[in-house]
């Protein structure tokens, strides 16, 4: 309901934009041809930096997952040991 009202309001506002404003947007000068533009070394460095960052994040995540799994295993072993101790104490009574 809220989304429908929002879409209706935005559509209504867009319908009121004067045609000359839309005409100005259409008259903009075109940019350079795609074959004239190159990413260059800066773009390459950014790309490599992003790859390095992703790899470092994946390594960090793997370490954290291993640590959490180890803690969960230790907690399970501790709980099992405590249960066995309680069972032994109950048998002695």
Give a verbal description of the structure.
The chain has helices at 2-15, 19-26, 40-92. The protein has three helices and no strands. Helices cover 81% and strands 0% of the residues. The termini are far apart. The chain has one domain (2-29, 38-92). It is elongated, with a radius of gyration of 32 Å. The protein has 93 residues and is mainly α. 0% of the residues are buried. Keywords: Membrane, Transmembrane, Transmembrane helix. The chain crosses the membrane at residues 39-59. This is TRAP-type C4-dicarboxylate transport system permease small subunit.
Give a brief rundown of this model.
The chain is mainly α. It has helices at residues 2-15, 19-26, 40-92. It starts with a helix and ends with a helix.
């Amino acid at each position: 309901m809220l989304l429908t009202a929002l879409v209706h309001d935005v559509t209504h506002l867009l319908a009121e934009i004067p045609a000359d404003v839309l005409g100005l947007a259409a008259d903009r000068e075109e940019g350079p041809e795609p074959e004239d533009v190159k990413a260059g070394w800066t773009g390459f460095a950014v790309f490599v930096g992003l790859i390095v960052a992703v790899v470092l994040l994946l390594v960090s995540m793997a370490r954290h997952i291993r640590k959490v799994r180890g803690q969960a295993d230790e907690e399970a072993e501790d709980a099992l040991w405590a249960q066995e101790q309680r069972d032994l104490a109950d048998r002695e009574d």
